[in-house]
Amino acid sequence: MxxxxxxxxxxxxxxIIDSLLERGADPQSIVAGARDTTKVADPRVRSVHLDYTDxxxxxxxxxxxxxxxxxxxxxxxxxxxxHRTVIDAAKxxxxxxxxxxxxPKATSSDLVLAPEHKATEELIAAAGLPAVILRNNWxxxxxxxxxxxxxxxxxxxAGTGDGRVASASRRDFAEAAAVVALEDxxxxxxxxxxxxxxxxxxxxxxxxxxxxxxxxxxxxxxxxDQVAALRDAGLDEGTAGFVAALDAGIKGxxxxxxxxxxxxxIGRPTTPLVEGLRxxx
Length: 281
Hints:
By secondary structure, this protein is an alpha/beta fold. It is 44% helix and 16% strand. The chain folds into two domains: 3-136, Rossmann fold; 138-168 and 194-257 and 271-281, UDP-galactose 4-epimerase, domain 1 (Alpha-Beta Complex). The chain has eleven helices and eleven strands. The two termini are 38 Å apart.
């Protein structure tokens, strides 16, 4: 079996490769697809040039591969055409398992990031690919900048209200991708993946306090006040609105659900919030 990991030099992709190796995959069975192959971390795996915007590079990377792990692109607004290129190439190559890292409740969520993932899932279904959908909740690492800011100011400000987030460390989600790629079965499954505990931003502030060693207070703000503050901090109107919309989605419960599926897939509890934050502090 040959497994192609797209975005192999990114934060999630490189951890998926690590997890595949840790779970016994032959290094030569792993193909690391990246725009810049010199950045592929593990020299034991095969590396190929793969640029989501270059269909020829994608087709060449997918040729002869059994399994594709499509790590969703990082360019918001460009994901659907980029993902379509990989989906089309995988279909043409006769890939026998297609794993996609999606977003929580992608087909029904009002989270601002969901539409591109919903569209990608629909493209996968329309192509008739034998697929496994991994709907990843938030990565704890997403809070690295907030943690650093809180260490300086003692304040965590957000428009999330009492909304909860079932985050887990990126390594937990990477391990789940490795599991479904290496194991028989899983095709046709849509897994909603989240950490074992759904926490509030008050809980997050308490975790920041524990990690930084200084008291951190959560200060909830309205969406309008948040946008104004972000603009004052130098963000453009569109970016400020996007950040506020993400927080509004959290406030509405878009990231709150967890049923233990991630822990069952990886065979262990997910990484606790404080431990995950310590790793990025």
